[in-house]
Amino acid sequence: MQARRVVITGIGIVSALGANKDVFWKRLTSGHSGIRRITKFDATDYASKIAAEVVEYDLDAFVPKKEQRRMDQFCHYAMGAARLAMQDSGLDMARENPERVGVLVTSGVGGLQTLEEQHTVLVNKGPGRCSPFMIPQMIVNIPAGLIAIEYNMQGPNFAVVSACASSAHAVGDALRLIQRGDADVIVTGGAEAAVCSLGIAGFCAMRALSTRNDDPQKASRPFDRDRDGFVMGEGAAVVMIEEYEHARQRGATIYCEVGGFGMSCDAFHMTAPADDGSGAARAMQMAMKDAGVTADAITYINAHGTSTPLNDKIETRAIKRALGETAARKVMISSSKSMTGHLLGAAGALETAVCAMAIQTGVVPPTINQENPDPDCDLDYVPNTARSHDVRVCLNNSLGFGGHNACVLLRKL
Question: Which residue among the candidates 76, 169, 246, 342 is catalytic per the annotation?
């Protein structure tokens, strides 16, 4: 039996570049950086003092005040992104069979701020003062549950966790569920709120973060010779993915088709990617095979592009390995993280949304801070300035600690 076709019909974004997809897109394509000095806590004693914080978000517009106190901030962001995606898609749950609508919204680290705050309560005031909401505030699957409760979505509902590949895996799982007929519509994506003292301390201890503290907007510089680490980002992205005939019959606006998905594991190292890029390359090749396209068909790749010394050169190798040297040199590649920071488990969903909007608008966003060529990174990273182009087929790469690789393929209908 032929697999059912799947499309994207709605996008919701909460990020350092705005909590409105049109504002986000305008800023992203104009090369605007959302990175600044951390304001959420005193970062004086931290090696990295910068992050891409969410600053334009009216929580009261999305979550009642009483409910706000029962949620970690990553859930605040998830609820907003889900509402925005629902509005964008025009989906009316009163007209839907709730058993055919699912939610796969995830996170990489979940309620880290709640963990930090409640541990402080435990140490200072004792176990009897810990919040009864601590556990449901922390757990990674809770945004999926809360969104389902909000909209009466009774279909498949879970959260896959694979570090920075989490929401890309969520999109892939949602694709498969719809293809095989388990649902008609799935709300999928990720949320993250790790800009807190514990989150920044942990990544600083790994020496993973940029310490370009005196020039925050230049700190995230994927594929540049002078990159020195990633910059933490926060927020959420949700995409509505839907069976094509279902979307067409209700008159939905369609951004693009979710054409394929691939995933693999490096089986190499806890945090470092495989030296030859073979794991990430396999994920890209699997996505292309799944979609029935060749390397020459790829117009654009939204790279994982973290701005770490290892990731960027090895991802470059992976792209060459997956597409072949000739096709790799023709494809446009960019890293949204140069402007949004790294949203960890929410990155894959955010960058899936970026690919969908690139297809819809015919604009490829840039990689900003491309100033000094790196001989190990010698492909077309769309440096500094967006590019108008008919975007037909995109790959979105997401790579996570543990060697997790995920690649989502989107294409124009």
Answer: 342
